[in-house]
Design a protein that fits this description.
Radius of gyration: 19 Å
Mean pLDDT: 94
Oligomer: single chain
Largest sheet: 9 strands, mixed
CATH class of the largest domain: Alpha Beta
CATH topology of the largest domain: Spore Coat Polysaccharide Biosynthesis Protein SpsA, Chain A
Number of helices: 11
Number of strands: 13
Helix content: 40-55%
Length: about 350
């Protein structure tokens, strides 16, 4: 069994593979590199096989998004290649740096209770800024809104070493996620119904309910282009973010935590946020929010079953950030993590 497997999920991402895969191979430290292709319609697979013969290519039969794609890929690695102790899941649009693996592996091996970890994520295009997808580790507030060390809503901090420590966090980003293989398979991996977006936050929440920890490693840095598969301006991204946020909350919210009042309040807040899209005449995003709400209602029977099962399995109470990040950011003017 390998100590670490580097697994990149690809969907029509040949330009990113050509640009970023050489650095992954150069810094792999002898660990195997896999590319799991989600039935790309470009020539990613023949390009990989001809240009990077040392890469182990997994050809998936269909595109099941980040969640289903990685579930299938990691199960394939376990059954066909003997698995690994840890997996790292860098997006295809991640630029790695020399020595990016060793600090995270050292942290994981020093604390067996850590089941998920991430490096610092900085912007590929604005090199000294933290990037939206994870920054230096994420948290969830008492209404279910997510934020990060280094990024709160649309405020991105410059990295001047303020988050160079190794810190326990609530969630680690799927842009470059290290996971403990036994825990990933024990929990069934990501919730495939999410398809993409917030599945890693849901998974981090679930594993903490089982007593595991999530950390950010400030000694490792990678750079993220962002929106490599689904651009932030795409209304389908809006749909997935709003729907999956509600999925995650319903499944994981504490039994004694006033679930429905908070769900209803979130629905109102989501409605208010649609006014911002209306102001910009982004009608497809408004419709995406409406569709997300109805998708949530339709999924309630399944979500309720998942909620009951997770409650039965839970061994540890999970603490959320006790304040409202929306109030602190917009009303109190606290724009950075360290101000909160």
């Amino acid at each position: 069994m390998d100590t670490l497997a580097i697994v990149i999920l690809n969907y029509n991402g040949k330009p990113f593979l050509a640009k970023f895969l050489p650095a992954v191979l150069a810094t792999a430290d002898g660990h195997p590199v896999y590319v799991a292709d989600s039935a790309s319609s470009d020539d990613s697979v023949p390009f990989l096989k001809s240009t990077f013969p040392t890469v182990r290519v997994i050809e998936l039969p269909r595109n099941e998004g980040y969640a289903g794609g990685y579930n299938a890929a990691l199960e394939h690695i376990r059954t066909h290649y003997g698995g690994a102790t840890y997996y790292v899941l860098p997006n295809s649009d991640i630029e790695v740096t020399p020595g990016w693996l060793s600090p995270v592996l050292a942290l994981l091996e020093a604390n067996p209770n850590i089941a998920a970890c991430q490096p610092k994520i900085r912007s590929y295009n604005e090199r000294d800024l933290f990037e939206h997808a994870g920054a230096a580790g994420g948290f969830v507030d008492w209404l279910g809104y997510v934020f990060c060390r280094g990024r709160v809503f649309a405020t991105f901090e410059r990295d001047h070493g303020q988050y160079n420590d190794n810190q326990q966090v609530f969630w680690a980003t799927g842009a470059c996620l290290f996971v403990k293989a036994t825990v990933f398979h024990q929990t069934g991996g990501f919730d495939a119904s999410f398809f993409a977006h917030m599945e890693e936050i849901d998974w981090c929440w679930r594993i903490q309910r089982l007593g595991y920890e999530v950390w950010a490693c400030g000694e490792s840095t990678v750079y993220h282009v962002g929106g490599g598969t689904l651009h932030k301006s795409n209304p389908h991204k809006t749909f997935l973010n709003y729907r999956n946020s509600l999925y995650m909350l319903y499944k994981n919210w504490p039994a004694n935590g006033w679930l429905w009042p908070k769900i209803l309040f979130r629905l109102v807040m989501d409605g208010l946020s649609s006014l911002l899209f209306m102001r910009e005449k982004q009608w497809r995003d408004v419709w995406a929010i409406i569709r997300a709400h109805f998708a949530f209602y339709g999924a309630l029977p399944k979500l309720h079953q998942q909620r009951r099962l997770l409650k039965q399995q839970q061994t540890t109470e999970v603490k959320l950030y006790p304040k409202s990040i929306v109030w602190q950011y917009f009303a109190e003017g606290k724009k950075t993590f360290n101000q909160m």
